[in-house]
Amino acid sequence: MNESNYFNILVDWNYWGNFQTQLKNRPRYLKRVQTLFSPRTALSLLGIRRAGKSSIIHLYLQELFAQKTLEPKNSLVINMEDPRFARQLTAQDLHQLFESYWQNLDPTDPIIVLDEVQNVDGWERFVRYLLEAKNLRVIVTGSSSKMLDQELATVLTGRHVDIEVFPLMFREILEFEAIPHDSTVQLTKNRIAIKRALDNYFQWGGFPEVYLSESIERKRELLFRYFDDIIFKDLVRRFNIQEVHKLEQLANILITNTATLQSYNRLKSQINVSVDTVERFVRYFEIARIFFFLKKYEYSIGEQIRSVHKVYLIDNGFYAAKGFHFSENVGRLAENLVAIELFKRRLTLPNLELYYWK
Fold first, then answer.
1. 161 band by pLDDT with thresholds 50, 70 and 90
2. What is the pLDDT of residues 167-192, one digit of tens each?
3. pTM of the predicted model, to two decimals?
4. Greatest CA separation found in the chain?
């Protein structure tokens, strides 16, 4: 691609170009970004695809524009998943995109946003260049949390802070719906609207676009697309997986059996692979944040390691769209919501350890 092609893509993703968007506010994440973001330190927003990472960054930029503390020309957003990038991007492509922006806009102390950076080989070295050689403010987002954290830690020791983004909490759902809920009187007065919102959340989960879609067909379509993107973009492409059908099979089995005990030996028989392959796939699922696995509570570390794991799903919506089930399984879905809430709390309570008990 030549410089003109690069710049045309940038124009479509930036506020100084053609880009405009209206977003629902997510004040808890926005406050964390405001608190943690600082010069010469990379801020990384990590988490499952479509949880709202890019929207949070755009909310932050829009607030800076409104406060007149940042001009649109002093922000650069590079979306690595633009379909006009006909091949896998490299760090050299990032340099060329950055140079095209710099030459055309001549910015002052810009904020650089690299969206879905796991798609670019060598992106972490480019981030280091921006921080150290250019002394710029950098935000990255990515859908493979553990992988990104390891790569940042390797190249940017002590120079990055992380925020993990989850799909909407139920409190955020009530805020999206503008349902007052902060007192007993409000809870009682609005109980019917709250119950309706809870029923929707309970079944279809908290991915923002899914929740806001009124059509069940649209909700299902989005969830199928998210699932395919996680499997093929975040896992198959990233880890060069050959047994794609087996990976999909295992994911579907785990979705159907959310909040149940799962033995690796039993799973290997169901999809006809080795235990090592099951363990490898499970590790990939955890990296992509589509599943969480808990060990049984035991006093012995060895017993914990050997225990059968309990599987939880990042969002109930995948169960509604992909799970093979004959009943509503309300108890398991409720348990899954509680587990997700505990996983979220673990991010701000580092001493919190989670197990299952049987």
1. confident
2. 999 999 999 899 999 999 999 999 99
3. 0.89
4. 63
State the pLDDT at residue 151: 64
Q: Is there a contact between 176 and 24 (Cβ–Cβ < 8 Å)?
A: yes
Token pair listed for 51: 């949880």
Residue range 110-122, pLDDT digits in tens = 999 999 888 788 8
Please state, in angstroms and as integers, the Cα–Cα distance from residue 191 to each residue in 170, 187, 194, 195, 198, following that order.
14, 6, 5, 6, 10
Q: Could you give the count of Cα atoms lying within 13 Å of 267 in the half-sphere of its Cβ?
A: 29
Who's near 175: CB < 8 A, 6+ residues apart?
Answer: 25, 27
Q: Output the six-digit token pair for 177.
A: 């719906």
Digit-coded pLDDT (tens) for 23-42: 999 999 999 999 999 887 88
Residue 188 region by backbone torsions, left for phi larger than 0, else alpha for psi between -120 and 50, else beta = alpha
Residue 10 near residue 105 (C-beta atoms within 8 A): no
Residue 3 predicted with pLDDT over 80: no
CB-facing half-sphere around the CA of 337: CA atoms within 13 A = 20
Residues 6+ apart with CB under 8 A from 130: 98, 112, 136, 138
The pLDDT score that the predictor gives to residue 152 is 65
Cβ distance 290 to 146 under 8 Å? no
112 forms beta bridges with 76, 138
